[in-house]
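Sequence and structure are kept together here, with a separate record for every protein. An example record follows, reproduced without changes.
>
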Amino acid sequence: MAGIKRKGSAEGRRGKVKKAKFEGSKASKSSKTHAKKAAELDKTGLAEDELGGLSDEDGTSDSSLGNEGHTTMANGAAEPTIPRSTTNSSSKSKESHEKQKLLAQERKAAKPNADLIHRSKKIWERLRRKSHVPCDERRELVAELFGIVTGRIKEFVFKHDSVRVVQTALKYANLDQRKAIARELEGSYKQLGESKYAKFLISKLLVHGDTEIRDFIVPEFYGHVRHLIKHPEASQVLDDIYRGSLATPNQKAILLREWYGPEFAIFKVKSQDKVSSRLSDVLEASPEKRSPIMQSLFELIKQLTQKNMSGFTMLHDAMLEYILNVRQCSEEMTEFIELLKSDEDGHLLKNLAFTRSGARVVSLALAHGTAKDRKQILRAYKDYITAISEDAHGHQILLAAYEVIDDTVAVSKAIFPELLGKTDERSAHLAEYAVHLITRIPLLYLPVGRMKWLLSSDDLALLEEIDSRRTTTSKKDPVIRRKELLKAVSKPLLHAVAQNTETLMQSSFGCQFISEVLLGCDGEKTEALEAVVQVAEGDPSIDGHVAGSAAGGRMMKALVMGGHYNIKWGRVDGGVPFMPILSESTDQDTVVSPPLEFHNLFYDRVKPHLLSWATGPGSFVVVGLLESEGFEKKEEVLTALNKHRMQLESAANEKTTEQKMQKESKSERGKCKNNRNSTAGNPGSRLLLKML
């Protein structure tokens, strides 16, 4: 058969010859080595049984063994030898390990404070099992531990095992003991920060300490920020101090100012001196130093990003100060945006998205960049759209993309597939996101606009800043841009409302989502309106009905009126969002177009239970029904309500549960003085009586 070599083939013989030659060469080398070692041992006078493998127990040399493992006899015959036992080698190996262990113990015992460190580690082993140690025993152990470490702290903190002992001592110590440790380490905090193990001790001192301990530690980093922020260990400690509430705002400002140049590190500032970390204030005080300051700041930013040390909050704050003070459309701005895009893995942009300053940096970069820059920045967040939409700061990047990127098709393809979810899971996905405190913002921003109830003050301030900066970089009209984006997102949102109406109505956010989507989105809404009115059917006095919740009542009223009633202007404002509305009140008359016509659909379904709506929690829905424009059956509703005037009067004057309790108990009446003059009854029913 093809591919199988014959045993007698030349190639097979050649392979055997080569293998034998190789084994023979190894054997000859081994024999020479054994002979050489044996000669050396003979000179030193060592016994041959101590050669450790150079001879057998019977004194026969290994070199006398043949290839097949036989011993050559005097008569030339070959006698099989007994295989060498592994007992001696294993016992010798065990003895060797024991000797090494003894040597290691002797070396440890020879070190300074060896006994104290050993005892402290035993105490630590006991203390770390918190639930297994009684309070009295723990108190005694902590006292003994402090007796060991006091006066010897610096000998403990730079070792990986003994520094844990000090951390445990800090954890269970009182404030005076912690201050004693902090004073003993004074002058060494910079060195501690650079240590792989001791750096954690600084965080323990700051977390468990007070302002006095903080003022021991933080000033020791003054003048060293530019060096420490590039150090692999100290940078983490420095950013922990800066990021949280461990340092005061003034101390953080002093640390950040050192990014602006070496002179801010050389001429140190005292902690009690009030300083500003805003680069604009520094440049205003010394305008002639603008060029070296901006260059020094950019170089330090560049060094950290190139080292992939881009997760520091201090770095993000420094980048924000830089982009806020760069001249628009300048070479500096171009260079900075190129730095943001230079990270091929996108770690820099991803880290920036999850801090307050970082998200603002990315948003401003989108506003200042070219169309190509914006696409590249947005591409870095592929597969991360969901994560940043859930973040308190990251969602601002999506809002900025809505406002500055002219290519709405590219935005729709980059953001909406992940934000809205996969097609087969989209309805459930959107139902979950609609009630999320943060994720609902990028979902509702397009149908709603810049409403204060949706956006935070930071969001509104950022969008105003983007408006002023995009004038030279964006060409498309903002109204047209948002109309195109709304058209792309409307169909999935309306479908989600139609499929998850009952689920959404169980929460206030869900009810708000339904009303805003139906009022603000563009497209066919019949299916969604039918789903809403089906839930509204039935007796509203039954527990769990949508009319029983305040959010459900507001939703139904807004839908039957075709918009939200604006108290300031005395009219209904629709849901057309194509203008930068910066408050809940606007002086522009906005009406939903085309009208929802929900009032006719609603009345036809709830007509059998109209009186229950008018006298229950949903009374304002009936008020809205009578006030809505285009409702053709107002007279029919008024006639039906007029037949039940007595029930309306009873509901309007019925005392509340709270007032009944006040009447029953004088003590309760004394506790509720502020509610004595509260109006009794259903206010919606009173309004209906006035209409009658």
